[in-house]
Amino acid sequence: MRKKIQLGVNIDHVATLRQARGGVNPEPLHAAREAEKGGADGITVHLREDRRHIQDHDIYALKKSCRVPLNLEMALSPEIVRIALRLRPQKVCFVPEKRKELTTEGGLDAYAKRILLKKLVPKFRKKGIEVSLFIDPLWQQIRTAAWVGAPAIEIHTGAYANAQGAKQKKELNRLRAAAKEAHKLGLKVHAGHGLDYENVKSVARIPEIVELNIGHSIISQAMQVGVRQAVKQMKRLMRR
Prior knowledge:
Layout: E1 6-10, H1 12-21, H2 28-37, E2 42-46, H3 56-65, E3 70-74, H4 78-87, E4 91-94, H5 114-126, E5 130-135, H6 139-147, E6 152-156, H7 158-162, H8 165-184, E7 188-192, H9 200-204, E8 209-214, H10 216-225, H11 227-239
Parallel strand pairs: 1-2, 1-8, 2-3, 3-4, 4-5, 5-6, 6-7, 7-8
């Protein structure tokens, strides 16, 4: 029997609002606590190289205080790698990063980075950190993830989320096929990017996917109903 699908809540945009004024509010740590009370199974943050939202002190406060696993999204830059190995979050997700992008625009090209990943993944796993690769639903990328020793992948769902009608159905089938292929290779399958209260159900039904990471739509909904209730609503849709 399939275990209940897990929800990781990304709280980057709480920090985005704080940084707009340069003060201390709203506080990501408070948002994380409210997300936990709403049923979040994990807290996800992206420590970007330009520090546009989450700051170094945020990740240390979250690591110390969170009752659920902390998932650190990170680029493969030497500086961020050093910080992550020192922080030792329960999970890391290697993601691509461009300075001018508003949000992550696609999956990591794991195949192009396979030699570096082959060296880095064991370093994190030796410290007890679960590694996932944020990749597009492509067989070459999935097989590379297995080759470098990553125990998990997070499938980029942006193309599905941005599509409509027949095109969205086609993208959903790509997600299904990718999840099945990854599962056959022994990889845990996570998914995320662009998922919201309208499109999440079809992805949550894919049996091989065990975790979804969702941020923007939950934080947007939280502006109306609060973080705790927004998380509860999303989990109800995922598990319906």
